[in-house]
Amino acid sequence: MSEAVSIPVIAHGGANSLINIVDTIKYGKADALAIASILHYKVIEEFSVLFSDYIEEGNISFLNSGKLPKNITLNSIEEIKSFLLKEQIATRY
After folding, report:
1. Could you tell me the mean pLDDT of each successive run of 10 residues in the chain, 93 residues long?
2. 0.85 cut: is pTM over it?
3. In 3D, which of 89, 57, 77, 62 has the Cα closest to residue 15?
4. Are residues 45 and 73 in the same domain?
């Protein structure tokens, strides 16, 4: 897609691992990625340990149900950026 248009292409949806992110950039030639779940589940995991009242706030009933997708590798922003740099992919750091 990015080779067919003259504007930046943002890949959105479906990133479930660090390798998947790298492949989307290297082989899909995306100019940027919009990722959510791979980060959300990690944040929920960390915040629920740090802030006991966090699990009482917001609309996070699905996340609290324990039915987290099994195919998503939980990663933080720092872990993703570090992996991208190892793969020689520039990031804003």
Report:
1. 90 87 91 82 62 57 65 84 93 75
2. no
3. 77
4. yes
